[in-house]
Write a structure and sequence with these properties.
The chain is of the alpha/beta class. It has 11 helices and 8 strands.
């Protein structure tokens, strides 16, 4: 398969993947672009059993094309998965479970929510390139206080670390991480994990960032006052991203997101934001497919742990 071979329109998607065999072949070629490799011994020689399993000639291990991917053990046609993935990527403002249920005719909100959660877990690629250049970093609370007016908000507030590239005065890529607190033990690892050493890291004067320079960065400190307006003026790029992601959570998802799953919604936003200039929906479909074949499916019992999966109420 040529590199980055993907349908450019939904009509082409339908034409190319109207059989399950077409979908399996596409997954196989993306998963093993250089040919099959046994997940146990890395042998490249195999034969196909009567049940459609790939049998390794060296160690005898049997696996399927979808084992170890988002599609593992699915009872739904792969064609439906492909259509859902295309639809999710075609929604420029993001996809909600209610909209997916209505668009694809799922029998329940719970099912649509579970599919989206599985796809969100595939949107962050392990070992992805870190941010570089000039990067603004800050932390913010998303949601309401436990005793506040919950309304269309998270049940409780969550602290989120945010980093955004801002070279040439323009927004670049973003990173998010839900953190337990704003301590040095939380914020410095966020910087190290998400920003390339040698980059210019701009923060406010909060003491938790004091060892950033010792971690191999050019640390620029901008002391600010206690007001949010002052912070927005001195760290305009990261605060613009914070404003955008809050608006997205309240608009597309009506704020009906549990704290336990917030990170995955932030991962989706980062995936979309970092590819916002892509002109082809098909390329986004291809990127999601690449990561879906490298991501193990999350069992439903884990998806629904600590989550009641209630539909958001409209106001």
């Amino acid at each position: 398969m040529p590199r980055e071979n993907y349908p450019t329109t939904f009509e082409e998607l339908i034409d190319r993947f109207h059989r399950e065999e077409d979908c399996l072949d596409y997954i196989r070629r993306i998963r093993w672009p250089g040919g099959f490799q046994c997940p146990r011994c890395q042998c490249s020689e195999s034969w196909t059993t009567a049940r459609g399993l790939l049998h390794c000639r060296r160690c005898g291990h049997q696996t399927s094309v979808t084992a170890g991917t988002v599609f593992q053990d699915t009872r739904k046609p792969l064609r439906l998965w492909f259509h859902v993935m295309w639809w999710v990527m075609s929604q420029k403002t993001g996809a909600s479970a209610q909209n997916l249920k209505d668009a694809m005719g799922f029998g329940s909100y719970k099912t649509a929510w579970a599919w989206l959660q599985k796809l969100r877990r595939a949107m962050i690629r392990p070992g992805r390139d870190r941010l570089h250049g000039t990067v603004e970093v800050d932390e913010t609370y998303i949601g309401q206080d436990p005793d506040g007016n919950k309304g269309r908000r998270l049940v409780t507030r969550a602290l989120v670390a945010v980093a955004v590239e801002c070279g040439s005065g323009r927004l670049g890529r973003v990173r998010f991480r839900c953190v337990p607190d704003a301590s040095e033990a939380s914020m410095v690892p966020f910087v190290v994990d998400n920003i390339e050493p040698g980059s210019v890291v701009i923060t406010d004067g909060w003491k938790s960032y004091r060892s950033v320079a010792q971690s191999g960065y050019q640390h620029e400190v901008l002391p600010i006052g206690d007001t949010e307006e002052a912070a927005s003026e001195l760290l305009p790029h990261v605060h613009l991203v914070i404003s955008l992601v809050r608006r997205w959570l309240l608009g597309t998802h009506q704020g009906a997101i549990s704290r336990d799953h917030l990170q995955y919604y932030l991962d989706e936003y980062a995936f979309r934001f970092n590819r916002r200039l892509s002109t082809y929906r098909g390329k986004l479909f291809y990127r999601l497919m690449q990561q879906a074949v490298a991501t193990e499916a999350t069992p439903l019992r884990r998806l629904f742990a600590n989550h009641t999966c209630q539909q958001p109420t409209t106001t």
